[in-house]
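Entry, Tuesday afternoon. Goal for today is a structural model of the target with magnesium ion bound, before we commit to ordering more compound. Inputs were pasted exactly as handed over by J.K., no edits. I checked the ligand SMILES twice against the vendor sheet because last time a stereocentre got dropped in transcription.
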Amino acid sequence: METVAIPTKAKISLIAITKQYITPRTGQTTLAVSDVSLNIQQGEFLCIVGPSGCGKSTILSMIAGLTKPSSGTISMDGNAIHGPGRERGVVFQDYALFPWKTVRENIEFGPRFRDRAPLSTAARRELVDHYIELVSLNGSEDKYPHELSGGMRQRCAFARALANEPDVLLMDEPFAALDAQTRLILQEELLRIWGEELPRDKRKTVVFITHGIDEAVFLADRVAVMSNHPGQIKMEKPIGLPRPRNEGVRLTTDFQKLVDEIWQLIRHDAYEATIGKAGIKQA
Amino acid sequence: MSLEEKTADRTSSPRASGVPSAVSTMLIYLRSMGIFALIWYAGAWWIGNPVLLPSPVAVVQSLFSLIASGEVASNAASSLQRLAMGFAGAALIGIPLGLLMGMSRILYALVDPLIELLRPISGIAWIPLGMFILGVGETLPTAIMFYGAFFPIVINTLIGVRSVDERLIQAAKVLGVGRSSIILNVVLPASLPNILVGLRLGAGAAWTAMVAAELIGAPSGLGFAVEWYRELLMTPSVLAFVFLIGLFGYLFDKLLRALQTAITPWANISREVI
Ligand SMILES: Nc1ncnc2c1ncn2[C@@H]1O[C@H](COP(=O)(O)OP(=O)(O)OP(=O)(O)O)[C@@H](O)[C@H]1O
Ligand SMILES: [Mg+2]
């Protein structure tokens, strides 16, 4: 409640965001996101879950500054967002690593080529070494992305975003393409890198999109549940599970309860999005 | 222990299998060349007229004497020099033009119709007019080669820019990288495989067009030599120069392919699969 009363205090705030896509071929309009308002606090780990096509990627892309909202404003630290910027790092679902650059060159891309305050070769080397170490890619620095496993690519994309030292990390289903074991390991690793042990003002602010409700509950301080037609935020659920979190937390009844509660909320929408309305009536 | 053995096996096996496979490719190559020479020999014997079709032995003999007399060197030098000029000119203008066309809708709309109009017209079609304007000399074959190389280079560069993954540009943007830096460090390297394909196709087209231009419009060169010895009815020398045209064309492509592997190592995988 307090956060709503003083919106300027939020790290990122979305006010009445609507996004309408127009397909040039047919002139058909799609209302992807409708009247979404959301405040994200400094150091908060926010997960967004919702059925396929409800506008999660669209919201992330608007925060990143890659897509403009049709109406409403998005601001960071009280300043309106007009385009992409170094202070908001993105980890794309398909990683989007530069195929002609090695792991090391990918990670140093931001510090080297960004417009504002690029680093010298020596400073870059130290920084990149640090992040290679952090995501355990030592020994693979000189490999090209096509020579990496899926999990290694993911960690490289993550390190590339981190090495540019953004305040905010935007992640769009970063673990979706990974196998279950790798995903569990990377989830814990992500919490460690995010700064679970640090005080709030030292942590990065994270917006994390996922299809996995258990993943969202495991990671998040708060889960925003979205619904379809039109894309709206149905509920914001604070996750009070104690930190630091580890595998054990998944077995607790609190965890199971939260997962179940969120699942009940999106069950209907999820069925509708995947098997169509007819399927639900039969079910 | 068994694990160690396995890893050792795996690292050494490509080398071990690599040598015999190189030898066997060589054998296959030699075998098909041998069969070709045999058919040729039989054909020459059957026709029985060395002006129409000399035997391979006569062609090899005249090739050696042409090499000894320095005629091969001087004619190859003038052809290759024209290739270098025409091809370099086409690359220097074609690549930047393709890049700009890929990034600017206005320039594309302006230039593309012209390119599409000219592209189907072979360089050879311009030779008569070219002789009229430029006369016999260095300029005509060089200009025809430029023309031949230009379109494949522009079009493939354009395709390269058009097919740059939008995601990669977004990835650079969210890292705070500016427009000119994105062009230099994302658009250019991402288009590089296509640009190199364009260069190879352009070199091939230039070489083909050059021979045609030299046949009638040049005082020297491999194409000129072919025509010269045809008029003298010295067919073995004609065939020797025809062979050299093929050989140099092949070697130049080989060189560009090596360049391709060297400067786009990340694109090598897909090339091996195809
Ligand atoms: N560039 C676009 N042009 C037209 N419509 C679009 C475009 N991008 C997204 N949409 C539409 O907007 C809606 C929301 O898309 P979005 O990608 O944000 O969904 P999502 O929640 O990320 O889905 P998923 O979970 O499957 O990734 C969809 O109906 C989609 O068809
Ligand atoms: Mg999405």
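Chain A has two domains: 1-87+167-277, 93-165.
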